[in-house]
Amino acid sequence: MSEIRSIKRRRTKVESRINESETIRLMTIDDAWEYFITAKLGEGIRKRTHDDYSNTWRYLNEWLMEKGYEVKHVSDITPTMCRDYIKYLAYDAPRFKGHIYIHNDQGVGLSSATINMRIRSLKVAFNFWKREKMIRESPMDNVRIQKVDVDKIESFTDEQIEAMLGACDQRKYVGFRDYVFQICLLDTGMRMNELLSLEMESIDIKSRSIHLSAEFNKNRRYRVIPISPITLKLLYELADENKAHFPEQKKIFLSCYGEPVKDTQMNKRLKHYGDMTGVGKEIRSTAHTYRHTFARNYILNGGDPYTLMRILGHSSLNMTRRYIQMTDSDVIKQHNNFSPVSKIRTKLR
Predict the structure, then answer these.
(1) At 175, which helix (H) or strand (E)?
(2) Residue 39 host element (H or E)
(3) Taking the CB of the first residue and of the last residue of the chain, which one, N or C, has fewer CB atoms within 10 A?
């Protein structure tokens, strides 16, 4: 009788167990936050990202205090607290709380986009503290990003653009500045902060283009943005006005006191023109609406999406696609112009 041969069996996989006795660095929530933000500043985050992190953490702390949670150390924050906070944001948080221009009677429940921004910020912070041995596990580990509906983002019509531009009193410095600002938005599709950071040194008169350094670009990539002759002329005209009144300033878009204009100020100005003309009742009168308007008209006028992606400063066509949202009348018009049936019928005739 033959012997039974031995078989090498696989070793069963043993799940790694958390060592509950592993010590963690007890740190108060304030000290933990300072430690986190110092590390992020060392990584070179931008001011906007720093502000987003700071605001997110401040909002969470205010909510914890309002709810009466006794949280001394960052390790005291539990997954239940985090889930309750996200639920509060979705259903009970006042919209535009603390906004200097918008009243707090806008209802409750924040948008999914706003909630997701806070979820991402909290995940970054708690994951950092986990790596630094300040907490054993992140309480945000099982909190998922909310699903966001892809809403239709509208663009200005030609009539609305003419109304907004016509409302600028070009006899005054501020009115002329606002006129040039809107023309630049319409001609370039630049972001608000990119345009406000513009200096004359960034403009190449020979190639009629703006050379935007990585420092001011959202995705930290240098890019070249073409401009039309009329836009170039207006920018130089505004620069001449600046030299006459504020010769020490390098920025192009300045306040009437000679200080660089902030995004909050310019947003307020655009809203003012929207309210003055009635356009604001039909569509958001913002720089971002101008950005979508540029993208839509660029494609309708025969531009290709790859070039548009470069101009807008997107890293993928998927993002650019969100900016190219045609109206029903646009689709019908394009179909009438380019339908294969129209071409065949012409030949048959």
Answers:
(1) helix 173-188
(2) helix 29-42
(3) N
Report d(CA 215, CA 135) in Å as an integer.
Answer: 35
What gap in Å lies between CA 335 and CA 342, rounded to an integer? 9
Domains of the chain, first to last = 29-131 (1.10.150), 158-334 (1.10.443.10)
320 in Cβ contact with 309 (< 8 Å): yes
Q: What DSSP designation does 76 have?
A: G
Q: What is the 3-state secondary structure of 178-238?
A: HHHHHHHHHHHCCCHHHHHCCEHHHEECCCCEEEECCCCCCCCCCEEEECCHHHHHHHHHH
Amino acid at the residue 188: T
Distance CA 66, CA 75 (A): 19
Task: Give Cβ neighbours of residue 22 (< 8 Å, ≥ 6 apart).
Answer: 136
178-223, pLDDT tens digit by residue?
999 999 999 999 999 999 999 999 999 999 999 988 776 666 678 8
Residue 305, CA distances (Å) to 220, 238, 280 in order: 21, 32, 29
Q: Note the pLDDT tens digit of each residue in 146-164.
A: 876 655 668 899 999 999 9
d(CA 336, CA 333): 5
Q: Which of 105, 108, 73, 78 is nearest to 90 (CA)?
A: 108
Residue 209: both structure tokens together: 């283009």
